[in-house]
Amino acid sequence: MPYVDRQNRICGFLDIEENESSGRFLRRYFILDTQQGNLLWYMDNPQNLPKGTEKVGSLKLTYISKVSDATKLRPKAEFCFVINAGMRKFYLQANDQQDLVEWISVLNNATKITVPKPGEGHAAHAETPQEALGAMKQVSYKTEIIGGVPIITATQEQGEGQNGADRGGLKRGQNQLPYFLSRGAQDQTVIKAGYCVKQGAVMKNWKRRYFMLDENAVSYYKSDLEREALKVIPLKEIHKVQECKQSELMMRDNLFEMVTSSRTFYVQADSPEDMHSWIKAISGAIVAQRGPGRSANTIRQARRLSSPCIQRE
């Protein structure tokens, strides 16, 4: 979902049909920079790419004449909208209907040319990125059929980068179970799952990993296709989970920390909503585990806390 980063730019993941009329959409990280007058897109959040990595594409805002809903033009492309730029049309897919409306709104606002009326000493107030986004709740869902099992999940997805997969193929939702669990009997204790970026313990580098929270632990994997976890952090060892107080020092958006006796794990989510969702889910699971009874109701409560709104199942 779009959010305003620390440089006052509107950012978020979208799928784009980079080759017009190809029908093949690729996952990209978009940055709407109204100060520089550009819409840029990268393989992943530039914070997670090697320093100096070039953008995949860009478009000057002055070239954009109109941004509109294109779901009727592309009925097979869910939540599709189109950017008209001269002789070229850029088709993009949002994560859900709200995401679609927000992106169309902020792009149209960014490309608006305000002409002051005669007698006015200055131009009208320019809308800030925060004002453009407003206070709308940012939650997205996507339905996928995997191994014959329909799964409806929130869709903050993995971008492409050092550890990213080709987003032109099957897309995996932010809260979707790993592939090996979705093919058979699913582990009913899985509360939340999805991609985040974490800091390494030794090299202090940042890598995208697949995280999974169950009633006993937080685990992370190299990808959602892996069976063996790279690390398992028992909930009983987590003393605190909270928004990171050093996010400014680390220059990372959407950063939270899990504090244990031996180490503090720094984890970056893809949006503010996803960050708060993880904090609530992990905190809820810890309460459920340490409370007087670990009933099914407490686990369901932790699941509800993992999403900003009730999921459709």
UniProtKB/TrEMBL annotation:
- Name the source's superkingdom: Eukaryota
Domain PH: residue ranges = 7-112, 189-287
Subcellular localization, as worded in the UniProt entry: Cell membrane; Cytoplasm; Nucleus
Please provide the record's keywords in A-Z order.
Cell membrane, Cytoplasm, Lipid-binding, Membrane, Nucleus, Phosphoprotein, Repeat
The record describes its membrane topology as: Peripheral membrane protein
Q: One short Pfam family name for this protein?
A: PH
Give the InterPro entries listed for this entry: PH-like_dom_sf, PH_domain, PI-Interact_SigTrans_Reg
- Can you list the GO cellular component terms from the UniProt entry? cytoplasm; nucleus; plasma membrane
Q: Quote one Gene Ontology molecular function term.
A: lipid binding
Function text: Binds specifically to phosphatidylinositol 3,4-diphosphate (PtdIns3,4P2), but not to other phosphoinositides. May recruit other proteins to the plasma membrane.
Its recorded name reads: Pleckstrin homology domain containing A1
* Annotated organism of origin: Sparus aurata
